[in-house]
Amino acid sequence: EITLEFRKQTEQQEAHLKSKAADEEMRQGLEAKLLALESELESIKDGKILESEAHIESADVAKDSQISEIDARDLLHVQVHELGSEVKRMKVDTSAMQMDLNSKVKKIARLESENARLLSKIENYDQVSSVEDESKQPSTAEDESKQSGCTVFSFLNGLFDDKREQ
Questions:
Q1: What residue numbers bound the domain in which 52 lies?
Q2: pTM, entire model
Q3: DSSP letter string, 80-92
Q4: Is residue 142 part of a domain?
Q5: How many domains does the chain have?
Q6: HSE (CB half, 13 Å, CA atoms) of 88?
């Protein structure tokens, strides 16, 4: 009976040891699987982190691009506004120059008219003078100077009368 008891205890111990060994093997297998899963999880985390960083970087690049486009549009808007102001200023300058030019053209026309009138008076004077010279032959140099003085005086009087009329 002792032997039986001893055998039974020995078998129980062996079963217990085998069970412990099986448990230990299973524990080691589970630890190995756990390490593999942790490694895989770490790899997935790293991949997700890299993917997230790439996505964030891509979003930053897109945002920077949009900001650059907005800045370019703003600059273009400012340039268009400045050009509009420049065009308005040039229109005012052109209008002023046109008015000045019209004034000068009128003045030139008035001066040409005055010049034509004076030329006509001079021609009339030359004709009157030559007719008087032909009709009257002065007898002395004194008479001749009186005669030409009177003719010049009448011509100048005509000019002054015209100036007074204006």
A1: 2-135
A2: 0.38
A3: HHHHHHHHHHHHH
A4: no
A5: 1
A6: 6
- 140 lies in a domain? no
Q: How many residues does the chain have?
A: 166
Whose tokens are 């102001």? That residue is 85
pLDDT, one tens digit per residue, over 48-76 is 999 999 999 999 999 999 999 999 999 99
Give CA 12 to chain center in angstroms: 97
Q: Does a structural domain hold residue 126?
A: yes
Contacts of 125 (CB under 8 A, 6+ apart): 151, 155
Token couple for 142: 């004194």
Tokens 């009448």 belong to residue: 154
Report if residue 63 sits inside a domain: yes
For 102-125, letters b (16+ CB in 10 Å) and e give eeeeeeeeeeeeeeeeeeeeeeeb
